[in-house]
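Q: What does the assembly look like in three dimensions?
Context provided by user:
Components: three
Sequences:
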Amino acid sequence: MSIKKLICIGCPLGCEMEAEQEGTEIISVKGNTCPRGDAYARKELTSPTRIVTSTIRVEGGARHMVPVKTRQDIPKGKIFDCMEEVRKLSVTAPVHVGDVIVKDIAGTGVALVATGNVNVSN
Amino acid sequence: MYDVVIIGAGVSGSAVARELSRYKGRFCVLEKEEDVCCGTSKANSGIVHAGYDARPGSLMAKLNVEGNRRMEALSKELDFPFRRTGSFVVCTDEGSRQKLQELLERGQKNGVEDLQILSREEALFLEKNLADEVVAVLYAPTAGIVCPFGLTIALAENACENGVEFQFDTEVSAIKKQGEGYVIETSRGVFKTRYVVNAAGVYADIFHNMVSADKLHITPRKGEYFLLDKGAGGHVSHTIFALPGKYGKGILVTPTTHGNLLVGPTATDILEREGTNTTADGLAAIREKAGLSVKDLPLGKVITSFAGLRAHEDGHEFIIGEAADAPGFIDCAGIESPGLTSAPAIGAMVAGILKEKLNLSDNASFVAERKGILNPAKLSAEERNRLIEDNPAYGNIICRCEMISEGEIIDAVKRPLGAKSLDGVKRRTRAGMGRCQSGFCSPRTMEILHRELGIPMEELTKSGGDSRMITGGRKEAAQ
Amino acid sequence: MKQYDVVIIGAGPAGLAAAVSAFDAGIRSILILERDREAGGILNQCIHNGFGLHTFKEELTGPEYADRFVKQVEERGIECRLNTMVMDIGVECGAEAESVDAKHGVDAMEKPSCRSLKYVTAMSRTDGMYQVAARTVILAMGCRERPRGALNIPGYRPAGIYSAGTAQRLVNMEGYLPGKKVVILGSGDIGLIMARRMTLEGAKVQVVAELMPYSGGLKRNIVQCLDDYGIPLKLSHTVVDIQGKERVEGVTLAQVDEKRRPIAGTEETYECDTLLLSVGLLPENELSAGLGVELSPVTSGPIVNESLETNIEGVFACGNVLHVHDLVDFVSEEAGLAGKNAAAYITRMGKEEAAGQVQIEISPQSGVRYTVPSHIRLSQMQDTQTIRFRVGDVYKNCFIRAYLNDKQIISKKRPVMAPGEMEQLVLKKEQLLTFVEPEEKSHCLVIRVEEK
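A: Here is the predicted structure of the complete assembly.
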């Protein structure tokens, strides 16, 4: 059994937590203020994930770039695969918040969506 | 074959070029940087000295007083910022009063007008933030302040408009006598000329020594400065010098023509001719000494610090004229303080020498007036609105701190010898010179430079050469 | 000249939230002036997630958070002029102002200050320079980054030195990479976020140096921006030299002692082409100062009362122009209050006695650097009042205590407090009333950090 120390990234509070780990099993989580902390600790120690945010090029838009994010968190190990794919993407204006850019980014099963609006260039 | 090639587009070279453009001839200015005013001329105190410092009878004394006298009319003719603010030399111990008197007498010998010694009380009436230790001051009402960029750029632009050629990014590597003239080898080809004017600042000794056995030796003397926010600009209304005393040469405190407060310089002799870095010791020294003549200096309002190099020749005298053993090679060397003040007189003197030597005739199409970049803030509301109606770019503020519009930046880029880099825009318009130090406006100024000059974003520089602003573009892998 | 009940300077998160809440409190004559080409302020370049947990109960990116408020403003039909720079705000009491006051039944003799309209001078490409009159002004200009010059870092001044926010704009809005090999000075949140962002875009972020012995940013940003990518954070370190005449070629770091002076012999030079600075934010109050608004030397923001009203009647402030926040959610909340209070000011104009109020001065002491608000007029106080502040050091297992006229009224245990994270206390009016003698007009509320 081992004790792992971690800081929750669930919200700006940043709770400092301790988790008891037995092999791949998490026995307990302490120090969290809310259930999100418990969930984060368990996930972080077994299969850590992150939401990835970036930008992609826009053709014919009032702005050159539109911000995007993975709709859900993706495995940490896939972050750079995701970025590699993002780098090659572009989209044509107009783009709106929530538009799906790619249904499944880097084989994660998670969609890449726009998080900003870009109107057609006038 | 040129009639005259001037090496260096600093204030001296530009002043010579401008005065020379009164005459007919083929004139060219070679500059190793991408713009005018990139060396000593860009980083100094911006003071128009009254003229009591230099040794009576010296060329420095003569040209200082003459430059001071010419400055006001020139500022109107060429439309650059100048203000006759007056200067104080403050004395902080009773034992040194005699030195004020000596300065006064020296000034009078040099022909400086209206010098007077004021008591502490009289001085405080004019300048409330003098240090408590100040016992008396030498007041020189004829001293003033000038924008060193404004002066140099105005001279160069006017020269250019009157037909002088400017070659930038052109570094001189060798000068050889050939027949009646000189061959100048540069990073961008060979220039042949009858006469050379050596206005190369801290490099002037190198070029002089290429053609003359009578060697010069210039030491770059570093001066470090703090520039304070406009909120501190009213702390003093005159240039305040300290009497050289037990702390060595003092630190001056002065308003600038644009309403900031400038504190400095230090004086450190260095070896590196490009050593314009500030140092921890230098900045600490300013902080330590600045309060000796002026109290309650708001050093918390520093927006930037910088260093400049003075071209100090061993003899501490301007070396202007034809080198004795190199006919056709005119020096303009050792131009340290009061070089900025003297520039108008230096220009006239060197042009006079050349006119005589080359027997130049008048340039009938010479235009003495030059209009600076339009400053919309000086217009009435109605005039400003008419301007914006005609050219909406004047309604689009790019630099929030200095309130500089897109119209002014475009003007700076499009005019003769226009800006090609962010610093070029900054020196011409002040965009990026304010309290946020270009944090907000640099991406936008880059966009304007990119659009107006067709320079790819990746090639845009801060100040020419390899000073590129960005290293990669819009998802380069995709392109 | 056009006149508005509320003129809001800035359409960032503060300005937008203030507009929405003023509208929802019944005001219809509202104008927002924004210098940028779109509303949303700095959020538009904060493309990372982590916004909105308080406000929307979900995790949003900056542009999404902004979008929600922009939509609320649009739905209400509030006028928002973009690409418009406010040049000046002045208080002037002209004939026009008097006629307006007369219409609202203000007795000029009794309430002279109420007569004052504020005059906002603005400029844009399309409208030129013009003035609008405002019965109330809400200052929501945000903040700017502290530049290199303010730090006195010695060295050359080459290209490649960027404040983190400028780099963020270049990367996220314009799509350019400002550098490939990066050193970051300052562990403020924007610096941490940019460490990750530059890494994801292919740059090598070598190190983040922080002058203080603690981080200036949120803990979670250290985890997800630095730890995730193996970027070291060097506390008690600073930049002592910048090399490179044209473009940055190297940066020398050194450890600092407890007085923040570099320790000789600890210098370490990093080869790099970029130095990012994330060394603090400053409320942008040049317009406020021009108007005569009294500013706090601690926050550089206006000194305000419980209604977030400045010393100039009818002029309110909220968001980062008031004091620099860590969380946009609190900006929205604060701005909502400012909007509501501006509306209340307009509604009650001339109907209320201003003099002789019971006032509580808040005195920040031992460890508490400042408070917003700095004083409370009891008659204007809502049932509860949130007091926000920052502490000056890192404190573990300490108490935040409030004393009203020397009597302890609040004691709140805090496991960890740090300068980088804003703290708050909530005062209850009911409770204050029990401690305040009604004849006594002036009271003092001390807020301090105590170890036991």
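Follow-up: The interface with chain B takes residues 56-57, 64-65, 87-90 of chain A (CB under 8 Å).
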